Amino acid sequence: MGDTTLPVLLAVLLGALLHAGWNALIKSAPDKALNTALIHGMGTLLAVPLLLFNGPPAAAAWPYLIASTLIHIGYYTALAGAYKHGDLGLTYPLMRGSAPLLVALGSAPLLGERLSPLAWAGVVTICAGVLALGLSSAASGDERRRRKAIRYALLNAVFIAAYTVVDGLGVRANGGAGSYVAALFLLDGLPYLALVLWQRRARLAEVRAYVAERWPMAAGGTAASLGSYGIALWAMMHAPVATVAALRETSVLFAALLGTWLLRERFGWQRAAGTLIIVAGIMALRMG
Asked: What total of structural domains would you count in the chain?
C-alpha cells in the first residue's frame, strides 16, 4: 500500500471497530440468532432510502449480488452452528483469521491481483495474530463439541472468503459501493430473518416482546454493520481485496480491547502477544 492509501487503511480500521461493536452487541444478547436476524433484517429499512439516494445497481452487478446473498445464507447457517457448539472466543478468531488467507490465495486467479512479498507477509502475520489473540481465550470444554465447533468455524471461513471475493468483483462491476451495499443489505437480511422467524413460529408472542425490547440496541448494530461492510466494499475499489480482508479482521483485536475495557476481561500475555503480531502485520501491509 502506498502513501496515497493511508485514508483507505484508516477507513478499514474504523470499519473493523464497527464490526467488533455490532458483534459485541450480538454476544451480549440472550437470543443470539434472533438478535443477528433483527440486526440484518433492520438493514433492509436502511437499505431502501440508500437505494433511492444512490439509484439501483448496474446490471453487471446483479449476478454478484445474487451469488453473495446465497453465500450469506450458508454463512449465517455455519455461524449459528459454530456458536451452538463452541465459545465465541474460539470460533470467531478461527473464522475471521482464516478467511483473509483464503482470499489472498484466490486473489491472483480470480481477481488478477498479485501482492508484493511484504504485503503477503502482512496478510500472514495478521492472520497469525488474529488466531493467537482469539485462541488465547479458547475454553477447553467438551472436546467433541469443540471439534464440531472448529469444523463449523473453518467451513464459515470458506463462506467469508467466498463472499469477500464475490463482493470485491461485484462492487467493481457496479462502479461504486453505495448502490451495491444498499442492494446487498436489502437482499441479505430477509432470508435469514425469515428462517429464524419460521423456527420460532410457535412462540411469536415471545419474539414480538423480544423485538420490542431489543430493537433500539439492534438499530445501532444495524448502522454499525452497514457502515462496516460499506467501508470494506469502498476500500476494495481502492486497494487489493486481500489487503482489505486482512485489515478488516483486526476487528478481533478491537473485540479483545472492548472486552477488556467494558467487560473487565483479563488481557494476559497471550492477548498482548497477539496484539503486537497484528500491529506488525498492519505495518507490513502499510509498507507493502
From this structure: 1
